[in-house]
Structures are given as structure tokens and as C-alpha cells.
Amino acid sequence: MASSTGTVTSGPAAPPRSPQAPPAFHLLAKPTGAICNLDCAYCFFLDKEVFYPGSKFRMGEQVLEQYIRQLIESHQTDSVNIAWQGGEPTLMGLDFYRRTMDLVEKYRRPGMTFLHTMQTNGTLLDDEWAAFFAEHNFLLGISIDGPRPLHDVYRVDKGGKPTFDKVMRGLRLLQKHGVDYNVLTTVNRVNGDYPLEVYRFLRDEVGTTWMQFIPVVERINSDGLTIYQEGTTVSDRSVQPEQFGRFLSTIFDEWVRRDVGTIYVQTFEAALSNWLGLANSGMCVFNTTCGTGLAIEHNGDLYSCDHFVEPDYLLGNIQDTHMIELVASPQQIQFGLDKRDTLPRFCRECDVRFACHGECPKNRFTLTPAGEPGLNYLCAGFKDFFHHIDFPMKLMAGLIRRQREAREVMQILERAFTGVERNDPCPCGSGRKFKQCHGRPLPASGSKPLPASQSRSGAAAG
């Protein structure tokens, strides 16, 4: 608590460490809660403010200090990631993050290093922000959904106006100041029909070398809202399963023939890790279990996962109970194990389980062909994608095991596919004709007219 002198007392002391406690974990801090200056139609987090009625949605000094102290104390590793998200974290103002740097210096142990990260919409950035990020070696994630016509469909401000120009201005400022950044693109019902337009825009016009593609899956609750991870139907903004699979496969085909080693796509990197049989894919959704990617709200409430910020998944508050106790609590341990232990038989017997592991539990709300609950909504798309990439993934995994570079796969594929006729068997061994497999023509761009821009408050779910 804060004393009458304004100093911050210590809060809960670090307890004896449980054997269940992980040596390190990832914690997304939300200093503004669900508050954002944008009104993106598909944002799953904007409605979460209902859980904190009357709140000002600003992380105070007391919570900030407890967060930094306990995060450092909870890590047995010398490297700690301090990650900020929202809502929109830049709404806290730059002085808040300057104070964070002071607290890191106050509580760090000798030899510790810190990776400071922030996911932002980029619209509030200026030279001062960018210089600060560069000085402290931040890694910034910028949210952008493709070229202007695709981005501005759902990513609008509170007045319903497009945001593309503001986002690009912020991104160019990061580039100007030499800030390390990557790009996060949400794949929805609209831009999901334009995979190459999105990929080539990010690669050639934005100039990024690291991309994340996150599927939009909005579950419709019984009251028509999307606040909880409940319901078996999705909004009309949600990407369709086969659509998402085609989106990934189409981009992969371009990437694997010309961009391996120069462009990094998170899903492809995670897939290669699983084809190599590594213990961690680098993406929690494609790991066997989860539970080490949590979220902390502006008031110190700790939740099991960023996608499960709702009452049933509240672990406690770090002002009452030390963070590591909550991370190692039976509730959280079970949450992580359930990712593996609740897989339906259809998944357990699947030939690409090693690559998928059922993906994110938040998307497991459909029935298997046998009627068993717990099948991932995106299953059909992921299965098509993982089957499609099997041949080049095996080639890259083989190269790496022989201490060679994965980029050599581009030459190998060029030789393998040169001279193959459309009706010949595909060299990958799938048993399909080349024209139906790795020789299939690139898809035509989406032919549907783009819908008008939609805001969260004005978009109808269906």
C-alpha cells in the first residue's frame, strides 16, 4: 500500500518457491485495461471494461512497482521480458514508462538483462516516443491489417474514421529511429481473401522482416455479445476455417520459394520447430501444454491468459498474493495441462497433432465428426495447411539437422518442380496431381466488394 508519505511499501513477500513454478513465464501487462483510442470492430478486449465498473483504467504507482518487483523476483532466469499491451498502452504517457525503467534498475539482480516489448496500434507515436524506444532497446509490435483498403475496414478510430495513415506514420517513425519492430496482422473474413496482397504489402511496402498472422475468431455469447469465451457460433468478421488455411498456404508457397532466411513468419517458424521435434515451438498455441502466458490488469488482477480475461480465470491480485504463487497455483497448472488433456480423440489420433496440438483452447468449441466436443473451430484450415507444408518442412528440418541452412530449400524446390507438368504427380509424394498440390496456380484476389469501415459499436455480429 501507499503510506501517508507517498512511498510504496513492499507488498507480498516472495514465498518459498513451489516445485510447480516455472523458471520463467510471459506476462502481458495491460496498464490501461481495455481502454483504447481506436474502436476496431473485431477487438475482443474492448468490452472487458464491464468487469471493472467505475475504474479509471490507469495502472497506479503502487501496482506498477509491485508488478516490476514481483516479476523480477518470480524469474529464476537472468533474462526477463517486460511486455505491455492494451487496450492501447501508449495512453499511459511516456513518463509512466520512464518510471518503469527506474523500477527495473531498482530491483534488478546483478547480471540480469531485460527485453522490453510493447504491442501498439502506433497512432499516438511521435519522435519522443520513438527516441525513448530506441534508447531502451524496445521491441515494438505494430498492428496493421494490410494495405489501406483492407486495414481500414475494421481498424477505425472512435469516430469511425480510418486509421491507416496514422499507423503508417507511427511505423515510419520507428524505422527512422532504428527501433526494432515487427508486424501483427489479424486475419479476418475480409483480408483473409487477399493473402498475397497482405504479405507483399508487409514485405515490400512496410519493409518488415517479421510477421505475425493472428486469426480473428469471435464467439457469439447467448446475449449476442463477445465478452466471454462462450458460444458455438462466430461473428461475420471471423475468418472461416478453410479460408485461414488457404491464407497461410498461399503465403507459405511464396515464402518458401523466395523468402526463406530473409522474411520470418511466426507461424512458419513455429511449424519448423515442431517438425524438428523441439520442446517449444515458440508459440503457445502450437505447444503441447500452455499456462505460462498470462495477463495482468491495470489494478493487479492476474489472469490465466490474455484471451481469458474473465472472472472464471482470475487467479488473484498481486497486491494480496505474490505473483509466483498465482502462476504456480493449482488452478493455473490445471489450465495449462487442460490444453493437452481435453483433446478429443479425433485430435489425439490426427497425423498432424505434433504440429497443432489442438491450437488455442479458446477456439475449441465445435464437434468432431463423431460428435465429441472440443474440436478447434479452425481445424479444417490448419489440417490443410500442415499437410500442404509437410514436404518443404521435412526438407528444411533435414537441412538443419545436417548443419546446413534452411534457405537451401528454395534451390531444392526449384530443381524438384522444374519441368513438372500440371497433370504429373506432385514431387512431394502427396499422390495428388501437381496442379492440385504445389503447382496449383496462385489464387485470384478476392472478388467481393469490400464492406464499408466498421467500428466496434457500429458493427453487427451474425
Structural write-up:
- The protein is of the alpha/beta class.
- The protein contains 15 helices and 12 strands.
- The chain has helices at 61-74, 94-107, 127-135, 148-154, 164-176, 195-206, 241-258, 266-275, 323-327, 330-341, 345-348, 353-356, 379-388, 390-401, 409-417; strands spanning 26-29, 79-84, 113-120, 139-143, 180-187, 210-215, 264-265, 293-296, 301-303, 314-317, 364-367, 373-376.
- The strands form 2 sheets. Strands 7-6-5-4-3-2-1-8-9-10 form a 10-stranded mixed sheet. Strands 11-12 form a two-stranded antiparallel ribbon.
- Strand 2, helix 2 and strand 3 (113-120) form a beta-alpha-beta unit.
- Helix 8 (266-275) packs across helix 14 (390-401).
- The longest helix has 18 residues, at 241-258.
- Residues 1-7 have low confidence and may be disordered.
Task: Write a short abstract of this structure.
The chain is an alpha/beta fold and 462 residues long.
Features:
alpha/beta; 10-stranded mixed sheet; 33% helix; globular
